[in-house]
Amino acid sequence: MTKNNFSFYSFAIITIFWLVLFSCSHEDGKNGVFTDHFPDGVQRTWLGPDYWSNPMQDWQLNNGHIECLASARNRNVNILTYRIDDVKNGFMFSIKMGLLSDTLPPSKNNWLGIRIGSKGQFHDYRDDAIYGKGLNIGITTKGEMFIGEPPVKEDKNAILLVPYLKKEILLVTNLKKEDGKYHMTVSAKDPVSGKVLATVEQENVPAQNLTGSLALVSHFGETAKKRDIPTGWFDDLTLTGSAVTAYPDHAFGPILFSQYTLSRKILKLTAQMPPVGAQDGKTVGLQVKENGNWKTIATEDIDPDARTATFRIKDWNDSMDTPYRLTYEMAVGKGKKRKYFYTGTIRKDPRNKKEIVMAAFTGNNDLGFPNTEITEAVKKIHPDILFFSGDQIYEPVGGYRVQRAPLDKSILDYLRKWYLYGWEYGELLRNIPSIAIPDDHDVYHGNLWGAGGKATPPGLTGSTAHDAGGYKMPARWVNMVQRTQTSHLPDPYDPTPVEQGITVYYTALNLGGVSFAIVEDRKFKSAPKPLLPEAEIINGWPQNPNFNAAKEADVPGATLLGKRQLDFLDAWAQDWSDGTWMKALLSQTIFENLATLPKNDKSDAVVPRLRIMEKGKYPPDDVKVSDFDSDGWPQTGRRKAVETIRKAFAIHIAGDQHLGSTTQYGVDTWKDASYALCVPSISNYFPRRWFPSTPGKNRKPGAPKYTGDFFDGFGNRMTVYAVANPVFTGKKPSNLYDRSAGFGVVRFHRDTRQIDIECWPRGVDPTVPDARQYPGWPVIINQKDNYNRKAWGWLPKIMVTGLTQPVVKVYKEGKKNELVYALRITGNSFSPRVFAAGRYTLLVGDNGTFKKYEGLAPTKEKDTKTLTINF
Length: 871
What we know:
The chain starts with a strand and ends with a strand. Helix 5 packs parallel to helix 7 (475-486) and helix 10 packs parallel to helix 11. The strands form eleven sheets. Strands 1, 2, 3, 5, 6, 8, 12, 13, 14 and 16 form a ten-stranded antiparallel beta sheet that branches. The protein is built from twelve helices and 51 strands. Helix content is 13%, strand content 35%. It has four domains: 2-186 and 199-250, Galactose-binding domain-like (Jelly Rolls), CATH 2.60.120.260; 257-346, Immunoglobulin-like (Sandwich), CATH 2.60.40.10; 355-787, Alkaline phosphatase D (PhoD) (Purple Acid Phosphatase, chain A, domain 2); 793-870, Immunoglobulin-like (Sandwich), CATH 2.60.40.
């Protein structure tokens, strides 16, 4: 039962209580009371650590008010540090508010107010803050008060509230327990006199409708065509009562999260900040403890676009774990600042560990946010390093679509999405070295062919812009994205920017003797449509049924990694310094096209609608596809990349394909090059699949027919060992659990050079005895399997004394000696194989001291000669 009661009586005692509270400062961390009078003399987009605004760019803190800057639906500010967990004896929630514009039309669909009992789907306060739904309470621009939804019947007396709403009005919600039931009274008051202007009541409010998060709301469903009309302001927030529970640990910011790497004794650490204001601090400090006291060792400016502060510290002591603290001063009032801290640990280099563990991820969609199933499982694995291979954000994450212009708003739009990533994984990132590299969705592309950094032609949008090649967003915006995600990586191999001044980040990172090459497989890649007009490509998919991508697509001028990155990989393959004993390539996606579609479909637009198969079932008519977004194209570029990384006996770890798999590349035949792990999506909105109609050749007995030796849609050789195809599980929500979501793990074993490749479903505890990975995993290989090419001949067997586990480099002599391969061997002997006739040079040694043997001719038989090398 709900009833409206206009009257002009006042609650004197309650009014006095409010006035006392309003005279107090912001209460921190106390159950039963929360007040905030939003600081005077401060203007900034970010509202403060107690709040999360949706979307961030539509709100600001402005001289004592929270203001909504957009006339649009469901703009809200969620209180993070206080909530209602148990209604108990009730609560009181009051907020002063008013309209900011006289042009807002009177409508029952336009209102200011609050939301109580806001809850999301995944039982986490962060999910509540993003997608929570609850009980709305407010006043419409027609002056109508409501609980739940605005009234359908017009209230002629409502107009009495409009002058107050245009100036200022106090909305007070009281919930009391009476005879075991909850009774809600909402009052509109004159903030100056305390006079009650109107009330609305509801009896028997279900307790489950009241527990959850609390929010301020500006909802304008009917406005003028212009979206950027400011709507309302809020001030003097007061929340009291036995139901009010404090959660000070839920505060977020002002130092939101950190990311770091430590490689070759160089620490790179990035502090991610919110969009602070002119009155706030401009720098972040980095502290470590010295003689038991915190000491500032560096101070860095906050980048005005990325809102990052990046530290680079040389000669870091990597032999011990080092606690660190980030410091920042933020304005909390006119002329007043407060110091904030953020702590973590820089781990020592795990050079003495027998096993180096990487956890790897891709596709961070927000279904399942904040992905506690993932983070809790990863904690139990105890990884030495984290790798986020791309799509850390998608354009729609967090709701409110995407804002591409103007530039300042588009930057804030991205940052809000990026902050969700830090909110999810920050507890891991603050203590574990991490690598993040942006993919297409991170830069607001469905597909990205970077074409050396050029801009897409003006006026093009959507897939038409994608197909033209280049970046749709401004270079300054792209650099901002890259700064947020990659500024903590080791310095780039060659920092020369590409077109438009877009920066590069390809580099190498050494950790515990494992060297990771990090490349950008989108930035330099050619767009296929301009090179292949006869294919009639739309969004990377050929529409001409007569076009044969395996035979016709490999055209001159088509680039994958580009010469700069191939030169880097060649140098990296030769560099085994710093105790390197294992190598891995990290990129956005794998060098093949592992996907099928029903035979009549011409693009993957159908993928989200495909029927999820039951376990053991197989679709009737799937065929291999030629998706130019995959790195199966261009074939020559793919071949060059694969030939280069196998020289380092490197495994390839990547993501993007929304389909977990472990495969092995083939160049001249099957299984003659590196293994590849494509990790499954954290949350998979695009459930690709691999169900080829023709079974793979040479598969293991009893293995699924989608395993074995194949040519992909571009004619590339690949051997498939395991695939995490989407399968019906019966778990809810099905669109989270039936789409083979999860993460990958790679374990590098120092002594044996064994590599364990793992693929874990989300929702599985990997530490319990009966924990099951996706079918087909783990896949266990040896380092040398990554260059398992048949020998043409053999160089003399090497016997080394005076040096344990030396590095061996084999070069084919010619006008310019070409690396055949390089490897740190186990033990002291090694039989070098070669793959063609000719003369060869051997380099054997370590730490800059090598012995060189030139003019060596191979023999057909192994170990017919011995070369003894003394150090």
